[in-house]
Amino acid sequence: MSVEAERRIAPSVHAVALGSIGDAVAAQEIVTFGYVDARENVSRRRVEPHRQVYIELRWYLLGWDLDREDWRIFRTDRISEFHSTGTRYEPRPLPADSAVAYLRSGLGETFHRMRITIDAPIAAVADALRHEDARLSSVNHTRTEALLALDSWQRVLPALSYLDSNFRIEAPPDMATDITQFARRLTAAVQAHD
């Protein structure tokens, strides 16, 4: 054997689910399914499926949500009770160059923008965030600004801890609250251990 690849843990999606979604996309059929969002809210959805996207070790479905009358991105591993209705739809123009571009834009239901200013040079930050959708700019030779589109803020924690640098996070209110609560739990855990 001449090649070996690292094993990375990612949310699992059954091939049958991917096949069912792919069939509905190809047939342009409206689908229904149960969905659990990042905050564990459960809902039923009626969607015109447009594309499946595989990015950063996750599968997503991009579709037009008929009840919300807008484009939405759904993590495939959070979809259940998926059914094709047999009702066909006319494709809508996508408000981006591609499904990947739309997903990366952070405009979907599960993606949020975050800005992190890190007291580290851009080369170190680029290495630490190499698996994330991050746009980096150098503030000066020792400080970097990172703009990220994330479906969960927890994904950046390992990278920030490995950098061992001070940083400042600007995030949407819900995400900022979750991060603050986690910081309190982490502080309490360290104090309890002492």
TrEMBL record:
Name used for this protein in its record: WYL domain-containing protein
InterPro entries hit by this protein: CBASS_pafABC_assoc_protein, WYL_dom
Species this chain originates from: Kocuria carniphila
PROSITE patterns hit by this protein: WYL
Domain of life: Bacteria
Pfam families according to UniProt: WYL
Domain WYL: residue ranges: 18-82
